[in-house]
Amino acid sequence: MAVCRRVQLLLLFMSLSTRFFFTQGAKSQGGVNENLVDNADMGKNPGAPLQDGKLLAAAASQPRRSTGWKLAEEEACREDLTRLCPKHSWNNNLAVLECLQDRKEDTEISTDCNHLLWNYKLNLTTDPKFESVAVEVCKSTINDIKECAAEERGKGYLVSCLVDHRTNITEYQCNQYITKMTSIIFSDYRLICGFMDKCKDDINTLHCGSVNTGEKDVHSQGEVIACLEKGLVSEVEEQTEHYSIKEDCKKAIMRVAELSSDDFHLDRHLYFACRDDRERFCENIAAGEGRIYKCLFNHKFEDTMSGKCREALSTRQKLIAQDYKISYSLAKACKQDLRKYRCSVDTTLPRAREAKLSYLLLCLESAVHRGRTVSGECQGEMLDYRRMLMEDYSLSPEIVLHCRGEIDTHCSGLHHKGRTLHCLMRVSRDKGIMDNLCQKALQTLVQETDPGADYRIDRALNEACESVIQTACKHIRSGDPMILSCLMEHLYTDKMVEDCEHRLLELQYFISRDWKLDPILYRKCQNDAARICHTHGWNETSEFMPPGAVFSCLYRHAYRTEEQGRRLSRDCKTEVQRILHQRALDVKLDPDLQRRCMTDLGKWCSEKTTEPGQELECLQDHLEDLGSDCRDVVGNLTELESEDIQIEALLIRACEPVIQSYCHDMADNQIDTGDLMECLVLNKHQKEMNEKCAVGVTHFQLIQMKDFRFSYKFKMACKEDVLKLCPNIKKKVDVVICLSTTVRNDTLQDVKDQRVSMKCRRQLRVEELEMSEDIRLDPDLYESCRQDIKDHCQNVLFGNAQVIECLKDTKKRLSPRCHQKVFKLQEKEMIDPELDFQLMRVCKQMIRRFCSESDAKNMLQCLKQNKNSELMDPKCKQMITKRQITQNTDYRLNPVLRKACKADIPKFCQPILNKATDDNELEGQVISCLKLKYADQRLSPDCEDQIRVILQESALDYRLDPQLQMQCTEEIPRLCAEEVAAQEQTGQVEECLKVNLFICFTLKLPPNYTPLFLSIDLKTFQPPKMC
């Protein structure tokens, strides 16, 4: 039996691709002499009914005729032959055999003819003269191949040797003879030596058909093997109530499938199931070398593909998934590469594992990713089978087994063209309810198929994104891995279509969970990962550094300084930044973030309340409300963004006009270190700034206020100062107040060695200036005045300090708490005018013209001195006047006066100070007090100079005298409306009041208040009738 098995199974292994008809015309072409076949083909009574194995043996032992015997002459098959086969084939036994056994499915032949044919084939394959025929037709070949010439004759070894060396056979007759015999044997499983013995019990148990002669026609014999193959597939998928096929039969089934890999005619079940489909889709494809199989695989999901053919093709594909050798073209194309990269010699794995298609793909993909050379032919075959696995989830037993529930619940009816896989990906990505084993099976499949290396592997993605690729990514070569990056860059843009967006994010969800699945990242960073993160080969994993943890390791080292230790190479850092930019588009592309923030995303940032791509911003907005794990990871990402704001791809896209006009130098730097965001803040009110960019920049500023670490430049400049002077303070606004208070106190006390470092003081200045632009950047002020803003400034836009200005204008109507905060802000701005955003913005050009050499602290004083210049801008002049009015309401808001009158104020105005509160204006009472002392010439020289200036200015503009305004609130608009409307600051309003309101001043002014203009003789003054 061993000899029989070796002879006949090896005979089938390397069969040729082309079906060859031994017709009479073939003789003229050097075909095999028909007598050679006929003399070894049939017993004396070929048509006798064969009832059991004994008769079969008897028939096989009958003496042979010396002359040629013809099947066409036998009575048992004459009628069928006449009906089904062309007459020119009758003289050739093999042509007749092929005609009858390959007939159409809806035609029948008699039982006697069936038995005659089977007896003919059995005798043909078991007759010792079979080897004699081989010797006859393969003379030259045997002499050329030394191993075959040395084989012992009469035991079948010669034929085995010839089959082993089939690729070296150049003799035409020899090649054709072996090819033809293969097709004969595969028409009936009982002719495959040893198969029946190994699988008899399994055939009976699975009800695949009777092994008794005569109960099945020739068509059913292919069905028996097909039934066993389905049983084997079901066992692999561990379907319910499955039967476990015996190991010997499993090997025999896989061996038969392997031997039929060359020519689809040899898979009898598939041949009959797909005969019409072959004519429809593969008419011009020559048989052999697995070409028909591949052609049919490519058309498997066509609408016109018959269901029975599609089912037969799926079964064969599933067998290929279990043993790659069942694919003739793949085994042949990759044979040398498999040997070269030792993909079949892993002694730690069982043979069944090595033979799996997935193992082959992973081994060879690993070689490709390591930069090794894999032949183009092999890579082409790998691409075909990777695409095949992505198209049909049922070819992956692990997915069938572990994802059955998800498929039934969410993805039923979506089998074609990879739709089921993408449905499962969507369930895993969006719903987060997938069984862990199912997700692992999907992750494994994505690694095996490696669609990140070539998007065309994913048919569903390819079809959905074709239009986007043609428009947005047409500059990239088809199949280039950068296509996926290009698609990600256009996510949420006008060029992206909805279906492509969904398929892309579904795939990227799994690619993002294993850094190796991005081939560009792996190629650029594999050395860094090995050096820093201690990774292994492409298809090797480590429990100490799982695939998802490698990228975290890489990006932690991407932004290190030289002082902080090992850093990434330049190329690797660029790729890490690219991945970070992509992950910022969707929080679910960050495995760590999604895992830790699943609950918070559902609670605060559901799809109903958050726009796509805005989930991270939403989490940042709710930072204080997040769970500790989620808050930590969001905080780390925000801290990273502060160093490299280009990670925020949507923001950078929105700010492109501003960046191109004002910040392109910073954007071109590979190392950002916060410069780009600082530039965007400084240019937030340029005409190129659009609403989206402004909102995004402001949002980031607001987020920065929650933790000083979120401002990279501030953190790096002031980290040591914060630890020393402001420990345990986290919020940025509190840190800024702490540090700025320290700076102010050291300055006022003339401390020689300031406690806050110079680099921190510089950055502190930047932070203070930025905070002055939007009330929301001062959380304490904003919260104190939230209701007042709603009541008095509801229609005023945030930004440009407009809300702050509105609160200043309506200060008398503000709530006590808000009023106090606004007063403190004004006091701070008067001390440091650079923090007065509206003043600096409106008077920007005038400052350049008049005050370019002035110190920042003296900016308002300089503007006041040049206020009446002919070159002064009217809007700036108006703003200066507003600030003067504010200053005259309280001496504390006039730093120059306060300093000049430091001794005079407590000396002459102490009763007023005793009644004052820290946060409310004195409505000019102290200044009025000083005016009286000025008239008495009792002030110090410096204070006298300042009061003189105030008197001169208020004489020209009544608004600069808050006491006058307060006491004459009703009379000024009633009696001097024309003068007020003229808005000429030449003292007209006061002159009007002098003439018309003597009674007003004598009756309503407080006893200690004497306006400077009351220098008239009261005895001779006649008040006007209107008073």
What does this structure look like?
The chain has 1027 residues and is mainly alpha-helical. It contains 62 helices and no strands. Mean pLDDT is 81; it is low at 1-67, 210-219, 347-351 and 1012-1021. Cys-rich GLG repeats lie at residues 108-170, 244-304, 373-432, 433-495, 567-627, 688-747, 755-815, 871-938. Residues 1-25 form the signal peptide. GO terms for molecular function: fibroblast growth factor binding.
Topology:
Layout: H1 2-13, H2 24-28, H3 34-38, H4 53-60, H5 75-84, H6 93-101, H7 111-126, H8 129-137, H9 139-144, H10 146-149, H11 157-164, H12 172-185, H13 195-205, H14 218-236, H15 247-259, H16 268-273, H17 275-281, H18 291-298, H19 307-322, H20 328-333, H21 335-340, H22 351-355, H23 357-369, H24 376-391, H25 397-402, H26 404-410, H27 419-431, H28 436-449, H29 459-472, H30 482-489, H31 498-511, H32 519-532, H33 547-558, H34 570-583, H35 591-604, H36 615-621, H37 628-643, H38 649-654, H39 656-668, H40 675-682, H41 691-704, H42 712-725, H43 732-748, H44 758-771, H45 779-784, H46 786-792, H47 802-809, H48 816-831, H49 837-842, H50 844-850, H51 859-865, H52 874-889, H53 895-900, H54 904-908, H55 910-915, H56 925-935, H57 941-956, H58 962-967, H59 971-975, H60 977-982, H61 988-996, H62 998-1004
Membrane topology: Single-pass type I membrane protein
GO cellular component, one term: Golgi membrane
InterPro entries: Cys-rich_GLG1_repeat, Cys-rich_GLG1_repeat_euk, GLG1
